[in-house]
Amino acid sequence: IAEEGRPQAMLEAKDLERTNLSNFLEDRIAAFLAHERRVRAKNCGKRPDQVPTAEGITVRIVNANDKTFSMLPNFREHFASQGKRGGKAAKADASALEYRSKTLLLFQKVEGVDLCLFCMHVQEYGKDCRQPNTRRAYLSYLDSVRYFKPDNITAFAGPGRCSAEEPKPRENPN
């Protein structure tokens, strides 16, 4: 049954397919936020249930496709003519590289709406890929927005701090 006001065909972030990676990341984030909440509560002399915490966090891999990077002939000729690059011989036959493209999104439900707060797009090259890309991951896009709730949880609250607000600048002793 659909939530009131939401078309039945519109999925929520939590309804998107789960993966081992999304489960792992959600568990790690939940553990970190629980620890952070306990530390803030202790620093404030309160119980953990008396300090706000982030809720409604969902991590999903929304795209995971195998792709091929094809090198243009001019680039291939240039690198082949260089002979060596980084101590490894350039291969004239390295015209295509297989990789997996993944897009990871982090959502937080705020007032009934799933807000996408973080996006990361990577290219993963496996053990069978040629050097120098063997077992490498390249971060091709990263973005985030500042709508995380509660908004004072922007960094871990260190010892002696009651919240995660930015520390005040220190006075210059000179």
From TrEMBL:
Q: Which reaction does it catalyse?
A: L-lysyl-[protein] + acetyl-CoA = N(6)-acetyl-L-lysyl-[protein] + CoA + H(+)
User: Which Enzyme Commission number(s) are listed?
Assistant: 2.3.1.48
Q: Which domain of life is it from?
A: Eukaryota
| Keyword annotations of the record | Chromatin regulator, Nucleus, Transcription, Transcription regulation, Transferase
Ranges where the CBP/p300-type HAT domain occurs: 10-174
The biological processes this protein is annotated with in GO are: positive regulation of transcription by RNA polymerase II
> Where located?
Nucleus
Give the molecular function GO annotations.
Answer: chromatin DNA binding; histone acetyltransferase activity; transcription coactivator activity
Q: What EC class is this? A: transferase
Q: Which InterPro entries match?
A: CBP_P300_HAT, Histone_AcTrfase_Rtt109/CBP
A Gene Ontology CC term for this entry? nucleus
- The name on file for this protein is histone acetyltransferase
